[in-house]
Amino acid sequence: MALSQLTIFGAGLIGGSIALAARKNGVAQRIIVIDRDETTELDTDGKWRSAAHETKIWLKTSSLTVLCIPVRAIVELLPGMLHDSDHPITDCGSTKEAIALSVKNHPKRGLFVAGHPMAGSPRGGLKNASEELYKNCRWLLCPENSDESSTSLVRQFVESLGAHVIELNAKEHDSAVAITSHVPQVLASVLSVQAAAHQATEAAGPGYASATRVAGGAEEIWRDIFETNGPRVGEALLEIAERIKKLGTELSEAKIEGTLESLSQARALHDPSAK
Predict the structure, then answer these.
(1) Which of 142, 168, 194 is the last residue of a domain?
(2) 156-165 in b/e burial notation, b at 16+ Cβ within 10 A?
(3) What is the distance between the alpha carbons of residues 203 and 80, in angstroms, rounded to a whole number?
(4) Residue at which a domain ends, from 110, 145, 168
(5) Residue 1 included in any domain
């Protein structure tokens, strides 16, 4: 595909990587990135240049706009952006129901296609952006109440970055990412703090490194996630806590079979060929 103009709000890891991947794959003739009060253009030679004009002008001239900003900011800004735009808008927010609700009755609701790339890095920021970040990653789209033409354009855009599209509704999305993305962040962070409290990190090996790789996410991002998806994350944590407590009680009594069975079940899920 070749958009005449791709406009990205948010010049962090996610937005920066979209810009770089779009440039590499020839997705757009012009790539505009807006971050707070600064607007830049990513030229085909890979250089960033200052770009004038007000936000409304860029929205009007954009073939596709991508919001790579915190969820609460999307909720606040999306209604006005839809009002000022005549072309599709998508986002990369980590939760979807609150965003969908913010434009539920908007007259231009069909132009918005909710999205969420399942990609990232413990190291955020534009300096860590990569043109390969989305290669072969899952990119969740929630096209309920979106126009068919807008959905088609966003799907083509995502696939042009090298990602694989998975469609589900906003409720399904928030339930799924609670257990697969948000809970792992909490568990990894708690494990890191617990290990430090026991002064055990000097003896840590690769297993600990893998289990805590995502620990310590940026609070400005995770505050929005927990505020908009906290009940689901809480329910999942309590369910996991019950299982862990049961296994802990058994192990403290030298009963190991339950824990071994959990390992066996997990191994079968991750490697069906394993015996």
Answers:
(1) 168
(2) ebbebbbbeb
(3) 53
(4) 168
(5) no
Under 8 Å CB-to-CB from 20, ≥6 apart: which residues? 42, 129, 130, 131
Q: Is residue 81 part of a domain?
A: yes
17 and 140 share a domain?
yes
- The secondary element (H helix, E strand) that includes residue 203 is none
pLDDT tens across 59-94, in order?
A: 899 999 999 999 999 999 999 999 999 999 999 999
pTM for the model = 0.89
Structure tokens at 110: 């069909």
Instruction: Tell me the per-residue pLDDT of 1-58, one tens digit each, with 9 for 90 and over.
Output: 689 999 999 989 999 999 999 999 999 999 999 987 788 888 877 788 888 777 888 8
In the chain, how many domains are there? 2
**Which ranges of the chain would DSSP assign to H, the alpha helix?**
13-24, 55-61, 71-84, 97-102, 148-160, 170-177, 183-197, 206-211, 219-252, 257-270
Can you tell me whether residue 13 is helix, strand or coil?
helix
Indicate the SS3 state at residue 135. Answer: coil
Q: How far apart are CA 215 and CA 185, in angstroms?
A: 6
Residue 186 lies in domain:
173-270
CATH classification of the domain holding 26 = 3.40.50.720
CB 75 within 8 A of CB 48: no
Q: Is 51 exposed, middle or buried (0-12, 13-18, 19+ CB in 10 A)?
A: middle
Q: Which helix (H) or strand (E) holds 87?
A: none
